[in-house]
């Protein structure tokens, strides 16, 4: 992978024991992490986990109560003034009474390493609405304008807070194709999302935040493995005693649905187990004959739910 980022010893982003407190809420709690050049990193976490606060700290929009935030080895403000960071935040921030072209033109004018306005509009897929007033845009179009502002110049780090919320499927695909190009040119991309399939498909690295702390940090495959559980699915013919199935060892969840042509003829069982081999062994031990048996790892979404639920259980 080529890199346009200046090679320095400092990471692209460095958080060292960073905390941010609102009253009694520790939105970010002793967070330490480093992002490296060329990485595409997804920031995941349930509502209120501290994702937006983390991005605001990184962009210098909020200040840490303790710890240090460095961006390219400098303060966030210095990095932004130098044009090294492009950002797309969740909502607000678009001036109403200007056209799309005027607003993007302003974004370009403010960027020390700006691209041509027409190129920025084209890349974000908004050339055709360039003359439209910003307050007349649909939600998905407004997101594209925010994306255009985040890519108005040649930044080394692009920060995106829930960038595809409100975009339709094709807009979302086009958005990620553009983002991939940015990453392939060596830029570091950090995005917060609730769409776990996007994180799975796009990110080289996934950070899971929970109550302001880093709960997991690795590739999507590592996060899935960390959840430890596997999915098992099979069909059972004839009458099924659900209570017996619920007694299988190592289950973390189970659902039984009627899937045959006649009521009660075939049941499809889907379960999660922390030891799938032992669960399946016990199933045969009950004298049952599972058909169409499938054993698979967890998807990122299921792994995320399992990891955060386990942490909730530990803390309560
Ligand atoms: N300005 C504020 N004043 C008080 N509390 C705040 C403020 N901003 C955030 N919080 C609280 O800090 C915690 C973290 O919020 P944050 O918005 O960073 O989470 P998030 O992970 O981005 O959530 P979401 O997925 O819902 O966008 C939440 O409990 C939130 O209520």
TrEMBL record:
Claim: Ribosomal protein is one of the keywords in the record: no
Record's keyword terms, sorted: Antibiotic resistance, ATP-binding, Nucleotide-binding, Transport
Protein's name in the database: ABC transporter ATP-binding protein
Span of domain ABC transporter: 13-236
Major subcellular site: membrane
PANTHER family: ABC TRANSPORTER ATP-BINDING PROTEIN
InterPro entries the UniProt entry points to: AAA+_ATPase, ABC_transporter-like_ATP-bd, ABC_transporter-like_CS, ABC_transporter_ATP-binding, P-loop_NTPase
Top-level taxonomic group: Bacteria
Compartment list: Cell membrane
Topology within the bilayer: Peripheral membrane protein
Coiled-coil annotated residue ranges, if any: none
One term of GO molecular function: ATP binding
Entry-linked Pfam families: ABC_tran
């Amino acid at each position: 992978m080529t890199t346009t980022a200046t090679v320095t010893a400092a990471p692209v982003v460095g958080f060292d024991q960073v905390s941010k407190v609102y009253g009694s809420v520790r939105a970010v709690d002793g967070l330490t992490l480093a992002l490296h050049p060329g990485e595409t990193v997804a920031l995941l976490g349930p509502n209120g986990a501290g994702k937006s606060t983390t991005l605001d700290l990184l962009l210098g929009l909020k200040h840490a109560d303790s710890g240090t935030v460095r961006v390219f080895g400098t303060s966030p403000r210095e990095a932004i003034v130098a044009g090294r960071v492009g950002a797309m935040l969740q909502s607000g921030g678009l001036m109403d009474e200007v056209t799309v072209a005027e607003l993007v033109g302003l974004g370009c004018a403010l960027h020390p390493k700006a691209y041509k306005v027409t190129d920025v509009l084209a890349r974000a897929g908004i050339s055709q609405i360039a003359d439209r007033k910003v307050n007349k845009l649909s939600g998905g179009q407004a997101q594209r304008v925010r994306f255009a502002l985040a890519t108005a110049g040649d930044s080394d780090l692009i920060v995106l807070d829930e960038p595809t919320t409100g975009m339709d499927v094709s807009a979302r695909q086009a958005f990620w194709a553009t983002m991939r190009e940015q990453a392939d040119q060596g830029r570091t991309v950090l995005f917060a999302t609730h769409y776990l399939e996007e994180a799975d498909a796009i990110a080289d690295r996934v950070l899971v935040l929970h109550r302001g702390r880093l709960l997991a940090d690795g590739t999507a495959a590592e996060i899935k493995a960390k959840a430890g559980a596997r999915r098992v699915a099979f069909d059972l013919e004839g009458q099924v005693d659900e209570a017996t199935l619920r007694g299988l060892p190592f289950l973390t969840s189970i659902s039984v649905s009627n899937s045959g042509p006649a009521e009660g003829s075939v049941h499809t069982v889907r379960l999660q187990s922390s030891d799938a081999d032992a669960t399946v062994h016990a199933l045969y031990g009950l004298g049952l004959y599972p058909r169409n048996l499938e054993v698979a790892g967890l998807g990122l979404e299921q792994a995320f739910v399992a990891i955060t639920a386990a942490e909730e259980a530990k803390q309560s």
